Amino acid sequence: MEQIVKPYKSINVFISVNKLPIYDSKIMFVKYNNKVGYNEALEFCKKIGLNTEEYNADEYFKAYGFTVKDRSNLGYLHLVFINNKKEYRGDYLNTLAHENYHLVKDICKHHGLEYTDSGHDEHIAYLTGYLLKYLSDL
User: Fold this and answer.
1) Is 49 helix (H, G, I), strand (E, B) or coil?
2) Would the CA dihedral through 132, 93, 28, 60 be positive or negative?
3) Left if phi > 0, otherwise alpha if psi is -120 to 50, otherwise beta: which for 25?
4) Deepest in the core among 10, 14, 63, 88, taking most CB within 10 A?
5) What pTM value is reported for the model?
C-alpha cells in the first residue's frame, strides 16, 4: 500500500494512513496504548479534518478496537482503531482480525461489492488476507 502521510509514532500511539490502490480506498490504522495515545490519535484526526465527536467517548477508548468511516481533508477514510494497552495485548490478533472483517465489509460495501451465495466472493477473501497481513505487520 502507498503511504499518504508520514506515519505518526510516539510512545503512546502509532498512526499510519495508506491508500489501497485496487479499491481506491484510504485506510487509517491507529494502535494506541493508553488514554494519552488515544487523545494523540484524536488530535491527529482533527488535523486531517475528521470530526472526532462521534468517537471521542470513553466507550470507544475502552473498546478492544473499532472501525469508523468518515470524510477528511484526505478524502473518504476507513479508520481502524486498536487498543494495545497491556491488559488487551493477549487478544491483539483476535481484535485485529475482528476489526479487519468490518474494514473489508465496509470497503466492499462502499464499492458496491457484496457477499454472494454462489461462491463468487474471492475478491473478499483476497482482500481479507491482504489487509490482515498488512495491518499485522504495522
Assistant:
1) coil
2) positive
3) beta
4) 14
5) 0.91
